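Quick look at the format.
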Amino acid sequence: MAFELESNYKPRGDQSQAIAKLLKSIEAGNRHQTLLGVTGSGKTFTMANVIRELSLPPSRCSEPKANTRQGCRQRELDLGASDATIF
């Protein structure tokens, strides 16, 4: 099952550039990526777009305790019907 991104949003600001750079780095064989940003900057949405572009299967995500509520809400919006596990 491929990852399906259900969102009414489109990448904004630097997100398109970040998505392109992450894709290029992953395609070059770099397995570990770091995406930095303040709370609410769109990191989850950016990564959801990267996963969609790579046609990866759904993933498992975990959040630091302080961000669990916000993280789960973001994933509910970003992941939609995809079979993802949040813990």
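Next, a different chain entirely:
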Amino acid sequence: MAQGDDTPDRDHADQHQHGSELSEMQLRVRALETVLAEKGYIDPAAIDAIIEASETKVETYYHHWLAALERIVAAKGLADAPMLARTRQAWRHACARTPHGTPIELRPSDFKN
């Protein structure tokens, strides 16, 4: 966590190999950000700027982080708004059908609802 707030410190989160403070979903978002940055599609500093600009619009740091990634992915033309909405809905469906304590697996059938 960054000093003085409840925002996860990214460098600290990156150092965790086991027992991470981040949820599985948060780790997946971090992995997505890492891959997109490594391929040159996004600049992590741009994500940080978007997060800071949107802090009053979303409840948690994780939501800021995800919203920033979605905005950059859409702006780069890697996914459009309808695709992102379908993916969010698929994750909701996958979460709803998955028993508590079981890893969530996104399946093609999750995109059909």
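Residues 81-97 form the longest helix (17 residues).

See the schema section for token definitions.
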